[in-house]
Amino acid sequence: MTASQPIAEGRPRGGIRGPVARRSTALAAVVCLVSFTGFWIAQRAANVSMIDLMVYRAEGWTIRTGGDLYTMVATQAKLPTTYPPFGAMIFTPLTWLGVPAMRTVATAANLVLLLVVVHLSLRLVGRPHRIPHAAATFAVSAGAVWCEPVWTTLRYGQINLLLAVLVLWDLTRRSGHRWAGIGIGVAAGIKLTPALFAVFLALVGLVQGWRGLRAGRRVWNPALRRACVAAAAFAVTAGTAALVLPRDSHNFWTRMIFEANRVGHVEDTANQSVRGVVARVLHSTDPGRSWLLSAAAIGLLGLAVAVAAALAGDRLPSGSAWAACACAATALLVSPISWSHHWVWCVPMVLLLASEALRRGQLRWRIGAGAAGLVFCSYVIWAVPHGLGRPELRQNAGQMLLSAAYPAVGLAFLALTGVQAVRALRRPPSRPLGGANRTPRTGDYVYAADR
Questions:
Q1: How many CB atoms lie within 10 A of CB 4?
Q2: Of 40, 157, 213, 395, which shows the fewest CB atoms inside 10 Å?
Q3: In this structure, are residues 379 and 152 in contact, taking their beta carbons and an 8 Å threshold?
């Protein structure tokens, strides 16, 4: 399958049109505005600290004043810098605002970013079919703002939605776009975890290149191009930081990158990674080799599943979305620390499952999509002892299960993606009339290459 054209957006296929479409969009926009307003009021009533935003501001101030970035601690919690130095550099503008104004701007920006995440997620899964895209974006965002990862992202003033936008923006650009990959590279320069998407693209490109070589076609393909652009963009971020902050760059790449415990207590309930689950199961603050073996196995299997979904092409409906969400789930599972707010990737994941439930019309898919959405919207992970005194080290089996909710959904999603990809790869490729120049199906265009 060739994908040289982007998705045709605008009027929904076979859906409502004209004044009715405009009214549905306006109604959804009003509902979204009401929901966002209620969210803003609720966050202010809860007197949220936006503590991570305050750390970002302190990082920017440290750079402005020439301080040592990795000995700095901020807020009463004495939180350190954990991102690469380039990440700290982009926080410098936060020092131009007073704290109240900064909090207001950051909250408004995150709400806009949520709209963009939903828009790009819908585009990735190839929805909607019967209502305007804008109406679907507003409607989904009105509900998504209340799910735990998004709520907590805004509560702490985190940058998870920005990182998701950069990655999704890249993955939903047309296949042959010259600069596709920059978003992933910049996201990895801010925070290392998104770099797994570049590894994923490189693996897809290598397999497609090998297929091309064996068939006598060209080895170079869009996935390889995208991976190389991402690597180059990441190198630019690291190089820029090295020029501006040579001491901090040296400290980060030689010492801080290896200090995973610097980020926080590994056994904390908020740590929704495999390492956090293993620490709570072992009642230990250092899961050591047990976590490394588990993370290595899940990382390899997760990447294999994501690559298989991408290679399935037009044999797997919304294969690009399955692959992207599988890669995101893998990154979240194997990261030493994946705080609950890092799981904003639940938005495209649940949308994909809901889309499949609509397409298939089967009860088990509806139950699966509903269950996944319920996990992320129920705040169930906080229904266990947590907080001061490290009660996580004394959890019983039921509490461990509840505090492993997000990794459980992630592993289940990887297993489901693997089954779908294997079944798709066993089917012969479709050969539609019109040859290679046909317009790709919605949601199947991201990783396509000449085959």
A1: 16
A2: 213
A3: no
